[in-house]
Structure of p-benzoquinone reductase:
Amino acid sequence: MTDKASIVNSSPLDEGLKMAVIYHSNYGHTRKVALAIEQGARDYAQDKVEVRALDVDDMDWEFADAAQMMVFGSAVYMGSITAEFKTFMDSTSKRWFHRKWHGKWAAGFANSGGLSGDKLAALQQICGFSMQHGMNWAGFPVMPTGHSEQDINRLSSFMGLMTQSGNDSPEVTPGEGDINSAKLFGEHLAQTLINQPPKLQLNKED
Ligand SMILES: Cc1cc2nc3c(=O)[nH]c(=O)nc-3n(C[C@H](O)[C@H](O)[C@H](O)COP(=O)(O)O)c2cc1C
């Protein structure tokens, strides 16, 4: 991770809508979900929103600061967001102090091996982090179609997206239902951003 401390003085207000999908993934399963969210948002928004997935290990702080919506996601390790995702969170403390992200949209997703696996705890950590920044939370309002691996929102999560990966490579898992759910999540978020863009104030420099 680079540029932890410095704050980029971007001027996002007149540069069009941007959505950053910021995630951490050790073995690629959560990355697969992040890329599906990115794809769903892009397919819906076309050229109305610039959408980029950003790995916390290779952060583009300038894009994140310019984005009016940030979608945070982590793999679940020991019932929690990963250590790397927590390091990302902690590295935003100057932005928190200067209220740099106040009024932006936030949303969250969590992927893990267990059906529950304490993903809700990870989503709550991400939501609390977003509230600390004064962001506005967007959930996942899509009704479950059932509980099989082909179903949409099969884990019945509304606070944010939950996906589950089996003991196999990211080419195989998470499966079709979860990946389609991630695309729908991206679509919903892009629609939210287009229909309700935040009215952000220029940040004071202190
Ligand atoms: C050290 C370790 C701790 C884990 N803890 C959990 C856990 O608390 N809950 C769970 O459901 N899965 C847990 N898992 C499984 C991972 O969530 C799962 O392998 C997931 O696909 C990892 O995502 P990634 O490929 O994006 O890193 C753990 C795996 C490891 C290696």
About this structure: Residues 128 and 134 are 10 Å apart (CA to CA). The chain is about 35% helix and 20% strand. The radius of gyration is 16 Å. Helices lie at 29-45, 61-66, 83-90, 93-97, 119-132, 176-195.
